[in-house]
Amino acid sequence: MIIDKQFIGFIVVSSVAAGVNFLSRILFNYEFSYTLSIILAYCVGILTAFFLNKFFIFKPIESKNIKRFILFFMVNMLALVIIISVSLALNDYILPYIGWDWYRAEVAHFIGIASPVFTSYYLHKRFTFG
């Protein structure tokens, strides 16, 4: 199976944006609830991901940046629903059920961030930057 170089680049860029997302969620969590911190951190991650993807991965044809950002934002709203659902399910139900207490919120959020990677790549390649 040949792996697309663009997909590998997307994973690298997304990992950087996910790191920004993850660390900012921890900082936001000092002032806000877990759910609101995930949402705020996701906004920071979206901005990071948009510019990194635009400049390094997809290199779109000429078009208005605002249009690209709106499409990017819409795709990421779907991803946000997935991230919140996975993070909350893991943090509130699954991890406590199996007795996992070690950095439970962080583990749940990390897995949540990673969960929409294939969906996001496909939708960004096809619609946002295609």
Overall description:
By secondary structure, the protein is an all-alpha fold. It has one domain. It contains five helices and no strands. It has helices at residues 5-28, 34-58, 65-97, 104-114, 117-128. The longest helix has 33 residues, at 65-97. The two termini are 23 Å apart.
Q: What is the string of SSEs from the N terminus onward?
A: HHHHH
Uncertain regions spanning at least 5 consecutive residues: none
Number of domains: 1
Average residue-wise pLDDT: 90
Count of separate DSSP helical elements: 5
* End-to-end Cα distance: 23 Å
By secondary-structure content and strand pairing, the structural class works out as mainly alpha
Percent helix range: over 70%
Characterize the biggest β-sheet. Answer: none
The total count of strands amounts to 0
User: What shape does the CA trace take?
Assistant: globular
What is the quaternary state of this protein?
single chain
| Strand-residue proportion | under 5%
Radius of gyration (Å): 15 Å
Question: Summary?
Answer:
By secondary structure, this protein is an all-alpha fold. It has 5 helices and no strands. The longest helix is centred in the middle third of the chain and has 33 residues, at 65-97.
